[in-house]
Amino acid sequence: MLLNLHSHNLMKTLLATVICWTVALLIFFPIFWMVLTSFKTEIAAISMPPQFIFEPTLDNYRRIFERTNYTRYAWNSVVVSVGSSILGMIIAVPAAYAMAFYPSPRTKGTLLWMLSTKMLPPVGVLIPIYLLFRDLSLLDTRLGLTMIFMLMNLPIMVWMIYTYFREIPPEILEASRMDGANTREEILKVVVPMSKGGLAASFLLALILSWNEAFWSLNLTASRAATLTAFIASYSNPEGLFWARLSAASTLAVAPILIFGWLSMKQLVRGLTFGAVK
Amino acid sequence: MQTSNSRTALAVAGVLSVTIASSAFAQTTLTIGTVNNGDMVRMERLASVYEEQNPGITLDFVVLEENVLRQRMTTDIAAGSGQFDIMTIGSYETPIWGANEWLVPLDDLPASYEVDDLFDSVRDGLSHDGTLYALPFYAESSMTYYRTDLFAEAGLDMPENPTWDQVRDFAQTLHDPSNDQYGICLRGLAGWGENMALVSTMVNAFGGRWFDMDWEPQLDSAEWNEAISFYVDLLGNYGPPGASSNGFNENLSLFNSGNCAMWVDATVAGAFVTDTSDSRVYDSVGFAAAPHQVTEKGSGWLWTWALAIPTSSQNQEEATDFIAWATSQEYSELVAAEDGIAAIPPGTRQSTYANDDYMAAAPFAAMTLAQMEKADPNDPTLEPVPYTGVQFVAISRFQSFGTNVGQQIAGALAGNMTVEQALQNSQQTVRREMVRGGYID
């Protein structure tokens, strides 16, 4: 009987492991294939059946570095995504604090209204934003892009941080107030340290969303403030083979955020599952 | 005292000379919006020669995907934001934007530019009311690519000027899907610049047209029905699987991998299919005219990628100088010296095709020349039409209804609807658009 139970548990663990690995491999495969293709020649990249074993070449990378200033695009991506995420945190933390600890009858409605702005397709506001940017001389500037990315991610950040703040018992805040803490100290010394994981997750999510954003960076930049998404788009070719070189460009574009995501995986997972394990 | 005066004079002279020198070397940056075509990438690389010759000019290339580029250019011009000094646009947009006064007219070109050396059809396609609004960088028509080895094995002979009926017979004979060999590869991907480029030339060849002289849509005519039925039957029976998602690049991949016995597409692909590093069939490709049927008129398309200057540019004079250089004979000579004579941007200048070295180095050049000379955007169809353009109608609404019709035809090709249904829907869509546009009641 005990042996049976043991083997049953073993089977369950094995099944779960197999399913986990299958899902992980399915998600990872396109990235793996992209990296593999980036080391192929154009003719090997399109060959049928697809080639797993081939003579690798660095030619695609060499040509990309010869033609484009990769570091300029990468630096722009770093500046606007980190900048917009920090700016977003500065605004989202006090907003979420007010909504979580001093709710008014309209708080729920305000939260929903904020989220509803995400339902509007960005192209619907392209022309007004473009004209505003033109008049404020923000076209093709990192400042303009930082602001638009921050505004784009703000509703999600407020929502996320709001849910983390709601986990904190109001009694703790009351206690800190009894000890003479003012609002600033309450936020910085009590609320923020208690939801470190959640705040890190919100920051990382905003960072990743900004890094991957393509619509605004393609439409509001030209050469000076163009980010890595514009860099990838420049390698799509309407007339000619381009898969191998495009794969190399995409690999270079996702590499920094992939490495960063991998290094901060612990915080990300902890933050995202924070609510579930309370 | 005198020493002090001379010191002051010296200082003033120094400041003046620095000011003069800095204004003489004040950098003008020209921002160029372009696409990632092989010829454009080459221009980007060779542009450093222009910068060396013109020390006051810095060239900044912004490379974008074709549709994004079109959208950016339209927004930029409409908003007058002056983000771009030079734009890469096609022969569809140029006359429309020229008529809207969005582009700088190019009627003051230096004599050394030899504007008469440009093909008439190319020049006409980039003009509005006789004024040139863009300079052609490279131009293309369409032609038939076929595998000489497969034709020889099967004992077939491709005529220099085949009909669609002959092409279908060849496709039937050479179609061998069990060996991944398809009789013919054609564009099936929906889009006014994708499947509709080929389909429009087929309709022209079958004697059809988009509109009659009163702008009444003709998509429910017998000619359209015959052409589209032929296309669906040909590509459905003898084409690769999933042909309705194949555009230029997918077909190029298939042809270069040796999966297509024939392919009807842009003449610019001549350089790609004969490229020894990118094509497996580089030594067994033959070239024939784009197929015709009841007429040769409009059976091959005409498309030009050109460089234009938006009126919002702050550096119009410098931009004109650069685009004149990038589309000149001098530039062609530079390309020949750097990358070989076969790499000269094709289809724009008659002198290129008068060059024996070029004709010998580029096996596709003779057929490209023949097709370019045949294509006439001002007389594209058997029956008279009120519009210009071979594979497009040069009116602003075409971009929208052209893609819509393309989706209907791709649907018929995928078997989601009958050809009759597709054409009926298309006729309704185009009619509605034309009523909205005030062309008809």
UniProtKB/TrEMBL annotation, chain A:
TM annotation in the entry: 14-36, 73-99, 111-133, 145-165, 187-209, 242-263
Matching Pfam families: BPD_transp_1
One GO CC term on file: plasma membrane
Keyword S-adenosyl-L-methionine recorded: no
ABC transmembrane type-1 domain segment(s): 74-264
Topology of the protein relative to the lipid bilayer: Multi-pass membrane protein
GO BP: any one term: transmembrane transport
Keywords noted in UniProt: Cell membrane, Membrane, Transmembrane, Transmembrane helix, Transport
Cellular localization per UniProt: Cell membrane
PROSITE patterns noted in UniProt: ABC_TM1
Stated family: Belongs to the binding-protein-dependent transport system permease family. MalFG subfamily.
Protein name: Carbohydrate ABC transporter permease
TrEMBL record, chain B:
Record's subcellular location: Periplasm
Main location: periplasm
Keyword line: Signal
Protein family (similarity comment): Belongs to the bacterial solute-binding protein 1 family.
Higher taxonomy: Bacteria, Pseudomonadati, Pseudomonadota, Gammaproteobacteria, Oceanospirillales
Listed Pfam families: SBP_bac_1
Transmembrane segments: none
Signal sequence bounds: 1-26
UniProt keyword DNA-binding, yes or no: no
GO cellular component: a single term: periplasmic space
Keyword Signal included in the entry's annotation: yes
Name of the protein described by the UniProt record: Sugar ABC transporter substrate-binding protein
